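Quick one: structure tokens for this chain, please?
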Amino acid sequence: MDSAHPIHHISDTALWVTVYRARESERADAVFRDPYASKLAGDRGMQMAAAMPFAQRHSWSYVARTWLVDQITEREIFQGTDTVLNLAAGLDTRPYRMRLPASLRWIEVDLPDTLNYKQEILAAETPNCAVERVSLDLRDRAARRALFQRLGFEAKRVVVLSEGLLIYFADREVAELARDLAAPPTFRLWVTDLTSPALLKMLQKAIGGPLDKAGSPLKFAPREGPDFFAAYGWKTVEARSLLHIAAKLKRLSFGMRLLSLLPDPAGRKPDKAWGGVCVFENSTSA
């Protein structure tokens, strides 16, 4: 692998992010355990992570994001969610590593190469709920609308997950996706990560080069923060800082711990470097 250009395609980022789940799982005090992460990341994922020192220093953000989305997903399943729709699912293994009801339906959507690779690695493993994998480019609006319509009809209460996806979309593309997700009334909640403009600028400088060369530049960081989504059918329920979650989980260096003592701007101050997880409620649902 060319260490100067470690990422060749957007799907490569799934290998890189999986490394941080593997490393967290090896800790005695791990906040989650993913027994499949190391095998899924493989040597290439490890090499990719090694070539991204800034991301390694801030791996706490990926750990915090995984833990927080785990917690939200568990809560919503307990409250009656019967279907989880995981957009850009990558190498996520929640259906295998989390304790889930067998009746739950988990839909993974991603590009064919990513899903095929995961299927190959996990072929001998049994998920804890029903898993369906859908090969689809989420930029294909007609195809995704058809999928959302079908799932919306089949399910009673859907939670949508989209970790690490929106930042690669332009504002217009996010707006269109938000509208399409709001169309089925059974799509009740949407859980996604969000970045402020100040943090986006920092990320573009620190890790944007390899992503630009792979044709996947970092783009989306609305000045309105979570309020961006209100015009497209989504009401903000939660907006939680990954820095503050990482402090709670004791995953920060001393300097970052000091920063975590500052109030959480909840993504609504564009000049503050903020990254977090937002939970949106479908305001078009009855």
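The chain has one domain: 59-282.
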